[in-house]
Amino acid sequence: MSDSGDIGAFASAVRQTPETYRSRGQPRRVSNAIARAMVSSGATKDSRLEPDAPLSSHLTYLVFRFILQIFYFCFSGYQWVLYYYHRLRLRISSVAVYHNRTPQLIRSDVVSLEKIPGHVATVLNLKNESEEGGGIDGLLHEVGELAAWCVGAGISVLTVYEKRGILKSMPIQDVNRAITRKLENYFGISNTPKFRLVIPHLHSQSSIRPGDNGDDATDEKFDLVINLISLTDGRTSIVELSKTLADMAMEHKLSSRDLSLSLIDRHLRDILEEPDLVILFSPDIDLQGFPPWQIRLSEIFYLPDNDEVSYVVFLKALQKYAKCKINVGR
Amino acid sequence: MNIISGFPGVEYLVKRTKTFLCHVLRTGPVPGHVAIVMDGNRRFAKKRHQETWEGHNAGFETLASVLEFCYELGVQAVTVFAFSIENFKRPAYEVDALMKIVKDKLIQVCENGDLADQYGLRIRVIGNRSLLPPDVIEVAEKAEKLTRNNTKAVLNICFPYTSRDDVTNSIRRIVTRAEKGLIDPDSIDEDTIASNMYTGSCPPLDILIRTSGVERFSDFMLWESQHYTMIEFVNILWPDFNCWHMFKAILKWGLQKGNGRYNENLLANDDSDYNLTGDDTLDYDSPSTTFVGDKDTSTDYYDNDSEETVVE
């Protein structure tokens, strides 16, 4: 509170109405000239300054703007310190926690947790080809790792959201092979867990469901189901559903009175069930258009300033989830 | 804290500081739409060995002060999650107490109308209102009618609301229009759905704040918070939340916006990058004009008076 005097002065300066400025009888022309000079000299980037406004209000404005910049400067300094603190903590914990590519270690990490989510969703990003772990190979590597961790922790459904739908559009066998290789790496060739890739669509009949060896996937038990989704499964799918419903209403197959929340929910569930936990590997909460309908009660997890798909984040997310209490409304 | 605030002059100083911070923030980018989940009233009451309704009451005190800060700053729309449709599952006495508090506050607004008049505030009670008791609906309608000609800012009270209900309602309105042949199904897009939602007439959501450290949306603003919304989960119980936290949130948002959103290397930028492009000249010369954000269309956000938000 050292600058409380200034605060009072500024505040009272602003509280003075424009009429007071005018009544002081400032010569208009001079103030106009100065204002124009300020604009042209580049003292301010804002070209919309009215040349007719009196000088003191411009000055007040500039002073406040300057103070705001100081605030921004201090705040970004604070964030900078925080950034390194977070990174350091992350570095330390990733040394302490490492899966060593053995499922037993993952199992022992989660065995003490009270509950494990049944369905985990993650948001992944395609990184630049030039970056370490970038490109499509990097993305496939991340999906494979996540699949292995999920099987290791006993999670039965994994949803991978990638905004642009790169995983969805590439040949499904390639994705399949990449994940299989990763799982073999973790579990050994004789013990590879079975998984199923699902690319959901609004009308679920058209889901592509290749099993390990093609289409004998009817009665088999899978250790993990992996949903690959993208931006089009989010808001776009709700738009598509509205179009279908509107079409049906026009043909009098459906009355708007029959339209209920549960009807919409039933259709959108075909695309994706509600995940219990959404893990973001981004430095802040950025859902990037993840299906909105489905994250109603999902726990959102992210580590500030983290930008890697790492086991520490995954494990911390599970630990956080185990502690959270969900009480719908109550 | 209580001891300090008891000193003479402290209250005055706090008020002055608040005004000062407002004026400073206004020179930068100002969010157009802020949404708040007021979570933690009951835990607050429990911590202090109070009755639940006392916690809710304290929550409303906080709300009044935060709202004042927001509107003074020039935020055009604030949406608060007062009551979820799921909250009807709570014990009847608590539901009744909450209904009474909201009703009392609305009556208060109707009677003295300070906040509404001072900031040109339009009050809307949004959500599935058919679930409310008739006397509360009556008061809500009265408050809306009294403030309907205010156009500077809007306060959306979500009461009782869930986002899924909101989306369903929006689709239902579209389908009804399609039934009457007023809309071509092929022309439906994201904007059609967004504009038919309860908050359809408000600027896009810039900041979503949830207090009490719970990191979940709990069926609030699911559709709106998907793109370009800064989501802040704050680990403070709502009655403990104050303007300082709001100030920090807006500062953070402004910094992100100024540097390009989701810039991974937010911190590597030097001083010159805190540009305030997109901010407007603060018009101290004509206090009657609305403070308009960087969206040119924002002036006609509330012009649509025929907009019906109530579910039949």
From TrEMBL, chain A:
Keyword Transferase: yes
Compartment(s) where it occurs, according to its Swiss-Prot or TrEMBL record: Endoplasmic reticulum membrane
Catalyzed chemical reaction(s): n isopentenyl diphosphate + (2E,6E)-farnesyl diphosphate = a di-trans,poly-cis-polyprenyl diphosphate + n diphosphate
Keywords in alphabetical order: Endoplasmic reticulum, Magnesium, Membrane, Transferase, Transmembrane, Transmembrane helix
Cofactor requirement: Mg(2+)
Enzyme class per UniProt: transferase
A GO molecular-function descriptor: ditrans,polycis-polyprenyl diphosphate synthase [(2E,6E)-farnesyl diphosphate specific] activity
Domain of life: Eukaryota
Enzyme Commission number(s): 2.5.1.87
InterPro entries to which the protein is assigned, alphabetical: Nus1/NgBR, UPP_synth-like_sf
Any one of the GO CC terms: endoplasmic reticulum membrane
Pathway: Protein modification; protein glycosylation
Single GO biological process annotation from the record: dolichyl monophosphate biosynthetic process
Keyword Magnesium: yes
Residues annotated as transmembrane: 62-85
Family per record: Belongs to the UPP synthase family.
Name under which the protein is recorded: ditrans,polycis-polyprenyl diphosphate synthase [(2E,6E)-farnesyldiphosphate specific]
Natural source organism: Sugiyamaella lignohabitans
Lineage: Eukaryota, Fungi, Dikarya, Ascomycota, Saccharomycotina
From TrEMBL, chain B:
Keywords: Endoplasmic reticulum, Magnesium, Membrane, Transferase
Cellular component, GO annotation: dehydrodolichyl diphosphate synthase complex; endoplasmic reticulum membrane; lipid droplet
Principal EC category: transferase
Biased composition (Acidic residues): 302-312
Pfam families, sorted: Prenyltransf
UniProt keyword Kinase, yes or no: no
GO biological process: dolichyl monophosphate biosynthetic process; endoplasmic reticulum to Golgi vesicle-mediated transport; polyprenol biosynthetic process
Compartments where found: Endoplasmic reticulum membrane
Subunit note: Forms an active dehydrodolichyl diphosphate synthase complex with NUS1.
Alphabetical list of NCBIfam families matching this protein: uppS
Entry function: With NUS1, forms the dehydrodolichyl diphosphate synthase (DDS) complex, an essential component of the dolichol monophosphate (Dol-P) biosynthetic machinery. Adds multiple copies of isopentenyl pyrophosphate (IPP) to farnesyl pyrophosphate (FPP) to produce dehydrodolichyl diphosphate (Dedol-PP), a precursor of dolichol which is utilized as a sugar carrier in protein glycosylation in the endoplasmic reticulum (ER).
Family to which the UniProt record says this protein belongs: Belongs to the UPP synthase family.
Listed name of the protein: Alkyl transferase
Organism the protein comes from: Sugiyamaella lignohabitans
Source species taxonomy: Eukaryota, Fungi, Dikarya, Ascomycota, Saccharomycotina
